[in-house]
Amino acid sequence: MTSWIHRRHVGACLLALAAWVAPQEARADDDADSREESADSSPVTPESAPEVFQELFLGEAPFTEEPGELQPIVNVAGRRRAAASSLSASAGLEAGITEHVEVEVEVPFEVYDARRTAAGPTNVELGLKYSLYSSAARRLAIAAGIAGSAPSLSDGVGEEAYGYEALLAIYKGLGALHLNVTLRGEVEHPVDPGEKVGAQAGGALAVLAPIGSVVPLIEARVDAGRDTEWTGALGVLWHPSPAWEIGAAGLASIAEGGPGYGANVILTFEWEPGGDAAADPEPTHARALRGSNPLGRPVGRR
Questions:
Q1: Domain range annotation of the chain
Q2: How far apart are alpha carbons 68 and 78 in whole angstroms?
Q3: Which CATH architecture has domain 70-288?
Q4: Residue 209 · residue 217 · CB < 8 Å
Q5: Is the link from the previous residue into 43 a cis peptide, with omega within 30 of 0?
Q6: What is the rounded distance in angstroms from the CA atom of residue 249 to the CA atom of residue 232?
Q7: What average pLDDT score do residues 66-81 get?
Q8: Prediction pTM value
């Protein structure tokens, strides 16, 4: 009897202990799941992913500016094909509206073209980009965008047509490499009603391998429409400070008009109007990215 009573008391104690431990384990699992979910997807903001570049030469980055933040961009490209050379430039500005939305404006300039005598500003473009998803834990960012362009502002250069474009950009970090894919489609509606509406689709792939503040990269792009053109870029991005980016690349292309080659230079920086630079020398994205780049210091938002 004593043995039975002893076993009964021991069994009751074990049952009580199990009844106390089970909720504790469940609570611990819930806390772990909550922490994992929080680290993985919250906050889901355009600045969450580990960004190591701001601009690309042939593709589009799926990152947006912080609300109230501005990013001026200067792009200069020289090309030569079939014994004809050209030099073009563009001035652009990106502005963050919300945590997920930014607006973009770009004014291209035709500086020199051996086949034409005119020069000047061409097809002004206005666009909007929306961040669909961004996670630092998964090193993944996705954004969609739309843009429209007006007929050329200068006679003899640019396109005498309205342009409409939609794109999807996807970034993914894989170990020491960073991949970026861009898919786009465009419709061109000529001002002259006698001309046919044109359409083209294409895509671009970029592979980046950051080494501290220097980011070597290689890009490939295809544009298919009335003519199909393949373009490649081999270059480097340099971040002298978290907010600044300077890039240079060599270009090579193949199209029905023959092979071509050229060079491209990009200069961009981020600016927060009204910000206290002395008290806060780094932009918001740089603070958020501290420690995100295993190969060096934070090097800018993209």
A1: 70-288
A2: 33
A3: Beta Barrel (2.40)
A4: yes
A5: yes
A6: 10
A7: 94
A8: 0.75
